[in-house]
Amino acid sequence: MAGFIIDIYLEFFFRTVVIWFRRLAASDWPVRNAIVAESEFRKPGMGCRVVVIRYRYRNAGERYDGIHKQPFLFDNYASAYLRRFPGGSEFPIRINPKNPLDSIQAEEPTFTRE
Questions:
Q1: In contact, 80 and 29? CB cutoff 8 Å
Q2: Parent domain of 67
Q3: Which residue has the higher pLDDT, 66 or 45?
Q4: Against a cut of 0.70, is the pTM above it?
Q5: What is the sign of the dihedral through the CA atoms of 113, 77, 89 and 25?
Q6: Is residue 52, in this structure, part of any structural domain at all?
Q7: Which helix (H) or strand (E) holds 80?
Q8: Residues 61-112: pLDDT tens digits?
Q9: Is residue 68 situated within a structural domain?
Q10: In percent, how much of the chain has pLDDT > 90?
């Protein structure tokens, strides 16, 4: 067995709350488009599923790297999110104007049927 069911929900809840608070704190930062360097789907031994997106962006002529980890409870939602952001695609982020090393995904993407 891959672990108790409760660990899946606890990790998902914790990661989601952290993302919400970071987005709230970054709501007035400027939005820019980053480029996805790579994205991957991590199935855990314990905990929830996580899509990891590594991205690159430029600010004031300097190049920076960032990482975003999005939690999911179900494989199909994680797979859809992963398909939305393949390597080379645009990824909207907010950049801290006081510290350009600090960035976060700009908004939660919406899913549509294709």
A1: no
A2: 5-105
A3: 66
A4: yes
A5: positive
A6: yes
A7: helix 75-84
A8: 999 999 999 999 999 999 999 999 999 999 999 999 999 999 999 976 554 4
A9: yes
A10: 76
Q: Given a cut of 50, is residue 43 above it in pLDDT? A: yes
Residue 96, token pair as written in the block = 């801290």
**What are the b/e assignments for 50-85, b being 16+ CB within 10 Å?**
bbebbbebebeeeebebebebbbeeeeebebbbebb
Nearest Cα to 94, choosing from 42, 11, 36, 23? 23
pLDDT attached to residue 109: 53
One-letter amino acid identity for 82? L
Query: How many distinct structural domains can be found in the chain?
Result: 1
Question: What gap in Å lies between CA 79 and CA 6, rounded to an integer?
Answer: 22
Contact 72, 54 (CB under 8 A): no
